[in-house]
Write a structure and sequence with these properties.
single chain, alpha/beta, about 400 residues, 9-stranded mixed β-sheet, 18 strands, Rossmann fold, 2 domains, Dihydrodipicolinate Reductase, domain 2
């Protein structure tokens, strides 16, 4: 089995590469990235005989297809607005596809490719990272055990870094968009837009996280879950996070810059040159991102010091009695599921365990089996059920 990780030299992609190298079902792992220097650093760090490196440029369709041509599956770990471009290349190469999310609007466009992927006999699973990805699987677990669903509420809790520490731990363009674009939620049976950083509430997570302030953020889970479980009468679905795992004051600084137009996409003339403010902002923020290698476990049994719990609460009825499921997946000093989940999913796809077409995670994978598989990397899920009289 041969799997290619596009953007495999990046932070999340490198974690997927490592997990695939550790998987006995995988024979070859290809780091496909435009940054060959970073790719060599990741390959040297992992030192796996399974690894090969290949140049890949998202703006060169022919080279992208060539990189995918003889692979069984592709993990797309590039920035989300390249998803449609990579899917087009996968269709041409007849290669199974998965990604880490489409930030709601792109995910909606990707779903329209279902018939083309089905006709090609290949599968695409959208938003199979940490979140989206894990919450979709969690929601499916609860939905399978309920007759009706009232709400699906997703809380992504990340242990905050030291106050004032400026560090962006995943794709800077995605962070900027999550901070500035209007979150879409599903409420009273319809999709609506809300203000960024709105609808705050305090939520209790498992140790070592504790009580964290949560707010709305634009995310892909909300794009699919209300549709997947429409037959159960769902009325509400939202996604909340705690400042994207950054100190509040850092988020406020970025918001101020955005308010002054630094997140703008239209060129501005500066000393006779055209400058896109957003590109400048991204370039400067990239100076505060850790090396991809810092996200990798130094061995199969250990990982960098972090903590994150993804919790999905689903309220509904079973046999006419109200029930609330709380499904929490905890990562504490273990590999971050953002890389592990798509790596494991791509193996399932390459094995033919996902039907042809384009699917959200909740319709692609059996939740019990998938959550159990994550335990191999010390990513554990705890489920509590509250029945009301």
């Amino acid at each position: 089995m041969k799997i290619v990780v596009l953007g495999g030299a990046g932070k999340m992609g490198a974690m997927a590469v490592q997990d695939l190298c550790l998987n006995p079902a995988v024979d070859e792992v290809v780091i496909a990235d435009v940054n060959q220097e970073n790719a060599r650093q990741i390959a040297d760090y992992l030192s796996s005989p399974k690894l090969t490196i290949r140049q890949a440029d998202l703006n060169d369709h022919a080279s992208l297809v060539a990189a995918l041509q003889d692979c069984d599956a592709c993990v797309n770990a590039t920035v989300y607005y390249s998803n449609l471009k990579v899917m087009a290349a996968c269709l041409e190469a007849r290669t199974h596809y998965t990604d880490l999310g489409g930030l709601f609007h792109t995910t909606r466009k990707q779903l329209e490719l279902h018939d083309r992927f089905a006709e090609a006999g290949i599968s695409a699973v959208l938003g199979m990272g940490s979140a989206p990805g894990i919450p979709n699987i969690q929601a499916r677990y609860a939905a399978d055990r309920l007759d009706t669903i009232e709400y699906i509420r997703i809380y992504d809790g990340i242990r905050p870094p030291e106050s004032g520490e400026v560090r962006f731990t995943y794709a800077v363009p995605t962070i900027i968009d999550e901070m500035t674009l209007a979150p879409c939620i599903y409420r009273d049976g319809e999709f609506i837009e809300c203000d960024p950083l709105s609808e705050f509430e305090d939520y209790w997570f498992s140790a070592p996280l504790g009580l964290l302030p949560m707010h709305l953020s634009l995310h892909s889970e909300v794009a699919t879950l209300p549709i997947s479980f429409a037959d159960k009468g769902i009325r509400e679905c939202f996604f909340k996070i705690n400042y994207w795992g950054m100190p509040r004051e850092v988020v406020e600084k970025v918001k101020v810059l955005a308010d002054f137009g630094f997140a703008g996409r239209e060129p501005v003339k500066v000393n006779g040159s055209q400058v896109i403010p957003r590109d400048l902002m991204i370039a400067l923020m990239e100076n505060h991102t850790p090396s991809p290698a810092t996200f990798l476990a130094p061995s199969e049994r250990s990982a960098p010091d972090w903590a994150k719990e993804i919790v999905t609460e689903v309220k509904g009825t079973k046999d006419s009695r109200p029930v609330i499921y709380r499904v929490g997946t905890l990562t504490a000093n273990s590999p971050l599921p953002t890389g592990v989940a798509p790596a494991r999913g791509s193996v399932w796809q390459a094995s033919g365990d996902v039907s042809p077409g384009v699917h959200p995670p909740e319709l692609a994978f059996d939740p019990q089996t998938f959550l159990k598989e994550l335990e191999a990397r010390e990513i554990y899920t705890e489920i509590t059920v509250k029945q009301m009289l």
